[in-house]
Design goal:
358 residues; 23% strand; globular; 10 strands; alpha+beta; 10-stranded antiparallel beta barrel
């Protein structure tokens, strides 16, 4: 349901004179992933909502599934690599008045600067839409900027500050100071791949994604940046579990007046049997419902990168979230990516779909 109206499959498809949309793609590919949706109306809501997003806008989009709850809700993320595509979408969104003026202006200004001044600073940007906001037809996203590697730290911070200020995000000064500290203390080889604000959730903290952290360096890094729950044994335990199953672990941190208690561990896999083994572990630890364990196990076993297809469906990663006390949540991220971006995607390269190591 969207605005109390449940559209039919035919009603959700773009008219002949309109550019094909992500909603069209989701509808046309429904049979490839529908078993992951417990409630078909949720998928219909997503299809209807993203009929306003042309396929050319994003080269990678996907679903965020909660595994440890019986909730039917599914969030959605999309990555934008081309400033011209972003600018065109914003102009259309302004005409249809589906985005508030201050956000539309901020994104429009950003897209123009991204063509030139910001071109050497950002790889991409990400929109994240919570299902609760999709139900309200709220087109204001949680927004993440994707910096390039080796951008000078002060230049990066100044640019991020200017972009968020132009969007009227009310990020506090201590958050930027913590971001400076987090970047300056990064282990060798690691880097910040995303800096965002969960704006649709009315959260003004910065959320930072750190990748390519060397194995064994996560806990020392958390101690260096004074993460408040670094000595909690649950964090160490889950890191050990993660490294037993996957090829690398990425880190998510929330930066407010202080570093938040919430922490995220993202797990990326080389082989499908490793991903399936970890999924089974989540189920045995009570972090995945039986229904979702069965449906995801079946689905992941059928995934196969089709090199002839324009879009590849793949498992991006699993995520473990910790509240700093004892509560954990688990999520799975499954999406589609264009063939030309599959080899360049930031920390989302398609896994090797083999059932056993060679």
């Amino acid at each position: 349901m969207a605005n109390g109206f449940k559209a039919t499959s035919q009603q959700m498809l773009s008219p002949p004179n309109k550019e094909r949309s992500i909603g069209d793609f989701l509808e046309n590919k429904r049979t490839e992933y529908h078993e992951l949706f417990v409630d078909d109306s949720v998928l219909s809501d997503l299809t209807c909502f993203f009929s306003e997003f042309p396929t050319g806008l994003s080269s990678f989009w996907g679903f965020e599934f909660d595994l440890n709850t019986h909730s039917h809700h599914v969030d959605f993320l999309l990555c934008i690599h081309q400033p011209d595509e972003l600018h065109a979408w914003i102009q259309n969104a302004k005409k249809q008045r589906i985005v508030k003026d201050e956000i539309a202006k901020g994104l429009s200004d950003f897209s123009i600067k991204w063509r030139k001044d910001y071109n050497y600073i950002f790889n991409n940007i990400w929109f994240e839409y919570d299902y609760s906001e999709i139900q309200k037809n709220n087109y204001i996203p949680n927004l993440f900027l994707g910096p390039k590697k080796n951008v000078h730290i002060l230049n990066l911070l100044d640019t991020i500050h200017n972009v968020f200020q132009g969007l009227e995000f009310k990020v506090q000064k201590p958050s930027y100071k913590l971001l400076l500290s987090c970047i300056s203390k990064l282990p060798k080889g690691s880097w910040v791949s995303q800096v965002g604000v969960m704006h649709a959730r009315r959260d003004n903290n910065l959320r930072v994604f750190i990748q390519d952290i060397p194995k064994g360096a996560v806990l020392p890094y958390l101690e260096d940046v004074e993460y408040p729950d670094v000595r909690n044994t649950h964090v160490k335990d889950w890191l050990q579990i993660a490294y037993r199953h996957c090829r690398k672990v990425e880190l998510d941190l929330d930066l407010g007046v202080t570093i938040g208690n919430h922490i995220g561990l993202e797990l990326y896999f080389e082989f499908m049997d490793e991903a399936l083994s970890f999924l089974k572990h989540l189920y045995e630890r009570g972090l995945c419902t039986r229904q979702k364990y069965l449906s995801f196990t079946e689905h992941l076993q059928t995934l196969n990168i089709n090199k002839e297809a324009g879009m590849h469906q793949f498992l991006s990663h699993f995520k473990i979230s910790f509240d700093g006390v004892s509560n954990f949540k688990s999520k799975a991220y499954i999406g589609y990516i264009t063939a030309d971006q599959a080899k360049n995607a930031t920390a989302t390269k398609p896994i090797n779909h083999k059932t056993t190591k060679q």
